[in-house]
Amino acid sequence: MKKFGTMIEFKEYIKKLNERLKKYIPASLLPSEEALYKPLNIFDVPKKEADEYKYKAIKYAFKHHYENNSFYRKFCKENDVRPDDIKSIDDFVKIPLIPDKFYKTYPAGKEFAMWLATIYTGELPNIVIRKNDSYDDIIKKFNDAGLVISYSSGTSGRHTFIPRDKRTFYNSEYGIAKSVVTMIYPFWEYDINGYLLMPNPFKTNVFAGKVCSVYFDVIKNVEVAIDREITADIIQAAMQDNLKGKIVRYAMQRENRKMINRIVKWLKEQHKQKNKIAMVGAPFILYFVMEELKKSGETFDFGENGAVATGGGWKIYEDKRMPVEEFRKMVEEVLGIPPEYCLDLYGMVEGNGWMVHCPEGHYLHVPTTYYHAMVIDENGEPVAYGEKGRFAFLDGLALSYPGFIISGDEVRMLEECPCCHRNTPVLEPEVKRAKGDEMRGCAEEMRRVLSMDMSR
Amino acid sequence: MFREWKDKEYIPPKTMVKLFTKGTFALSKVIIKNLNKLKKNRMEKVEYIPPKRKYKLPSYNPNMKYIKSDEKYLRPTLYCNPYAKEIIALANHLGAFEKEPYEYARDVFEFVKRNIILQILPLDGVVATLRRGYGTCLHKISLFIALCRVAGLKARYKLYALTMIQQWYETFVQPDPLMQEWYNAMGYFMLHGEGEVLIDGKWIVADVGPTPERQASAGIPITKFGEDSIGIWFQAIPGSIMRVESLPLGLGMASKILMEKIAPSSVKKINNSILKQYEKGKKILEEIGEEEYDKKVRKGYKMPKIELERKSIIFE
Ligand SMILES: [Zn+2]
Fold first, then answer.
1. Which of A161, A316, B199, B293 has the most Cβ atoms closer than 10 angstroms to its Cβ?
2. What domain count does chain B have?
3. What ipTM was predicted for this assembly?
4. pTM score
């Protein structure tokens, strides 16, 4: 990668970011927050130092949930584990993991509100629930009371609901911003133009969309691809193969045409004015934009004046997956943005750790200070580096719900990156769902909602 | 008569009517859209040999004890006649009136769960199921309930619409593209259930539907007496759980039309696929042993149990 002559020093770079993100940083830091906010380079903390941070962060979080969350405490007692049993990082394997499916096992009606209250760690503010409140109503009431309930939806039509408090949500937002800005060094600066290829974070409770609200604090001028309100009910309707679903999808398709045209127009303007741009969001939206440009034979040469950060999955059509590498090639061909500035993220609604591609090899680097990633075999035992298994993690940042989770995603973790020297383990560039689990991914779910299959 | 129907819960509960209306509507659409395909389906010849019964029927003698009652949850209901000779004989054979109620109910559970092979066919009575040795989960629950009631144990149905885990989807849906459309249309239509028996004032759940072989082939734990399959095997569609004394009127007819008239070849294909799964699971259990298998999968699958708390929520 060509570096600029006047390249900003990394320390200065992060300092500037922290200034922009001041409101996210708590006045006094808990151990897991120290592990997020203190390290200068979150992806390059020396192992010994990272382990110290991590031990304190995870131990604190485990004790916190054990003491303040009755269902998790019961679960620990069943597994015969107490906070005192965690004496070093080697003891982390004892911490009972919750299958990610657990966060889908919610009941209906007013019991849904109780379910949220039960999985929430600690006390809640007073919330008034009426008999006929829908899921969206209940979420809104919790959120009006200062919480951040967000969800991600599966193909079965069941959502994964996670109750965050403001503090946990802010930590998550700061985490995603710091992780991406760190990896894309020295690209980031505040005074540039951005396009969010997602629903408006302020009008959705889909986690992948909501967490992007930090983008508005990181970059000065941000446009949003999908500005209409997207509720849990709409998503559910759009995913159903019935008349209502068809109508919803048809309406969306018309909107989507307009959306693609708006983005194309924006790109043209930015290019003409030689502006620096950063596009963030669901890869399939950018894919359709680029297809549109290709149709009309247009290309741009943003070069190092452009960057793309994607996340959420690589399904383009119902039966078509796009290899990430191919996507990067397309971005280079059509937009002229080099692969070093086209990075993918891996994260999930249940966690606050963000794995980000390194520019050198596009391996997913795992944060090591507040987050402990593991790969688990079918018996629930950790596997060695390089072996396949399910992705699991202990998340120190999750303070409002126990973030000790075993996911359905199949991964392979390597002790170090084959392509760069950052001090973290890595996951292989592309993550697939474990067999036997329903597939999911934030982009996948948006893709369904938006039914981009129209062009076939 | 209507009153009796209502009392015995032959009239489908509101939730079920709602589910079925939605389901019927969606299904009719698939049918209309696929008239040609369906016609082909009816013409298509699919090789299908039903499984053989796994057990001998115990013989009946008129001196056998049984409890006849008109009390709710003890009396006969649709497709569930506890006083048939075959049922009385089997109940006595399984130790009714000799064993403790819990022990007896558990043995009935094990008998039905293990011996009646899952196959898709229209609803019919418990005697037919027992003679045949296979049936849907609704057939199996009815048999479980009849065997409990005849021994004086109150028993009922716990029914719900469900979202399936992937393996189940593969068995039922993938063998046939038409089924895939059905599946999409039927999201709310497919009922599944468990039995429940009242012992010492507590309703104990009996997940008699899946045989250990089916559960092994899907890689999930073998559910025991008193263990719910929701959360392990299925996710119930929120709000769809119904606890009823009887299967509702109309379900039998609907299932008959659906399976025999509309898409008989699809049903055969599904049944073949279930039998294949059964064989696969049998092999897995033979190789590592049932206990070892169960221990192994439970390790990776443990779900926290949750008792709902209200905290500071106020309900109006
Ligand atoms: Zn790397």
1. A161
2. 1
3. 0.82
4. 0.70
